[in-house]
Write a structure and sequence with these properties.
Elements: H1 8-11, H2 16-25, H3 27-48, H4 55-82
């Protein structure tokens, strides 16, 4: 299976406008996005073999990325329902 990044735009393709709006309006959302993107890059490097962490470390990072994605998804749902 090819290793790929998981940018938010690809994870939520139908919500590009909401992502952009929240990024502009909310510093909390921007911080979540920055954290998500940083973790995604770190996980990618590990999966590519550029960095060699333990399996436990990689699993923990993937869980953190998923938690961030869930929080971002919640904010996107909230933004769409209040629009």
């Amino acid at each position: 299976m090819p290793i790929a990044h998981h940018p938010l735009i690809n994870e939520f393709p139908d919500q590009r406008d909401a992502i952009h709006a929240l990024k502009e309006e909310s510093t909390h959302f921007q911080k979540l996005m920055d954290s998500y993107e940083g973790l995604d890059k770190e996980i990618f490097r590990m999966e590519e073999g550029i960095e060699t962490p333990s399996d436990e470390t990689l699993t923990d990072l993937k869980k953190r990325r998923l938690d961030l994605k869930d929080e971002i998804a919640g904010m996107l749902r909230e933004a769409e329902t209040s629009a």
